[in-house]
Amino acid sequence: MNNEEEYKKLEKANTCEEYFDKWLEDFEIANPTGEYFLDPENADSSLVCNIQTKLEFLLHTLEIFGLPVDYINGAGHHLNWNEKAKANQQRGKKKKATGGGKGGKGMTKLERMQQ
Amino acid sequence: MQAAKDAQNKKPEHFDLEPFKKAFKSFITISAEFRSQLRTHFAQKQDDLINCFRDEHEENSFKRCIDIREIAPRLKTNGFPIDQQMEENLGALLLCFGDIAFESGYGERVPPETDEQRKAKMLLEMRRADRAKQGDGKGDKKLQKQLTTEELEKKKKEDDDWKKEEEKLMNQMKPDKPMKVLLNLTSIHDLLNSVDDMATYDRMLTELAMTEFEQFDDEDRALAALGKPFDKGQQLLPELEEHRKYSDDGQIQSICEQINDLVTIPDPPESAKNAFAITLFCMEAAVDSRSIDFLKYAFNLFPDRDYLIITQPHTVPENALLSKFTLVPKTMNNTFAHVLYLIHRDYLLEQDIEVTRTTPEDYKQISELLFSNPTVTFDSPELTMGMFKQATSADSPWIAFSARVEDSVVAAFLISKDVNLEYYVSHFHVQDQILMGEHDRKGHSRLVYSIINPIFEKSTRFLMKELLRLSDKTSLYFEIQTKTVIPTIF
Predict the structure, then answer these.
(1) Residues B383 and B437 in one domain
(2) Is A89's CB within 8 Å of B19's CB?
(3) Dihedral of CA B87/B93/B94/B98: which sign?
(4) Cβ-based neighbour number of residue A61 at 10 Å
(5) Structural domain of residue B184, as residue ranges?
(6) How many CA within 13 A on the CB side of residue B6?
(7) B interface mutation test: which of A19, A77, A108 has the most B CBs within 10 A?
(8) Domain that holds residue A68
(9) pLDDT tens, residue by residue, B209-219
């Protein structure tokens, strides 16, 4: 992504088209047809079939690694935004109060933690 | 200015790629090499791995007792070389690449440390270290002597303040009470299976050239040291021999070989036919009781056949002829509308049955009868045989009887000489069945064991009456226990 502005313009539709679909372009899932499973010749309890699309497969796999369920529809986006914004504000205020500088260089670690 | 500030603080509405990036990063860090290293560690320290699976009593368990997310911290505690990456992603790794089996269930767990608790913990550590530095002890006593009263008071106040602060921090860092949480419980067995599955997956990817990693040397060495080298490749199953032999009988074999479908029931060879059937039977009602007389002549017409069978709809009442036939029990999946009756040629000798006390000459035949019993595996025939042998001695608590047709033993019975009548009377409504006063105290007996050749099953009533007559008993009891096979005579 080129810059912050471009990132802020992202929506579900264009993200899927511009990014996910592009990333998965060369990836193929070979799904057998229903006929194969309806054929009694192939009756085998150990047979496993993936009926997910490429994107579903990717997202479902990443859900195991912490991606929020239903992420594609907005779940888990900008999580804890309000708290983060609040923390940012407080940090800004403190910087001002301590005369700015990089993290209040004059303070010890203990003092910073106590604050 | 304010509007701009508000806009800055407003929750953005654009698509957030951060969660995706975070999850994707975790996913790609678990490379094939990383997985191979993990398996190597597991193989090298399998005992420690087993020790991680402890139940709530801190005892090693093979049951599903720990949560998938708890495996990494436990391994770390047990001294496994686990870095932060592995600690964070081990559960996901086992789920994703090993398809680890688990069952969901609720269990009590202490909630994870909050930021506040972590902060308090760090503060306490730092304050303690600080104080340790300040109060560096050498010459402390000397110093104390030189301190003025004010200084001493000040120091005391400082100490008090520190104690209060320490207490406050201790309270803050105190872990929360355990609470019920949903756990994905797994066992050591599931873990090892999942590690095997993961290995198969990785090796297959290497074989298919879908991954660049192919350095399984360390893992192979560790597995070889463990005595469980990786089974390379799929082993072909031996080819199945076509089922060709159906019977030792040449005629049956040749008939079976000609069958090409599952519907045809071929005609059996003559040598296999051992029964003939009554297909039509008419009798004047007045002489119905004499219909048995025909049986002898019927068998004479078929000297090579042992059984005579007859089927009739289950709604038709039994006539006098059938009183000598044995009703064959139906199998569970039988949908045939008729009931089957059967009689063996030897049953024509029924009027010659003779019941006597068992003699040592009967042992062999009784033993054959016992061992031919289909329930023999549950009955322990050796024990029963021992009881029969003992019953022939005078001091035995049992009496044994044998029923013979000519010289063959067709039934054997074991009854007791006495019964615990008081027990029966106190525990069962015996009086509802018999008039106690009409029976002599010595007239009660218990049937301990009975075995009858099924051909003569129809004569059971006669045999029992003979038993009572010969033993001078008037009532017979039968005790049923949990595994008692209820004889057909009841």
Answers:
(1) yes
(2) no
(3) negative
(4) 17
(5) 25-111+180-226
(6) 3
(7) A77
(8) 4-114
(9) 888 888 888 88
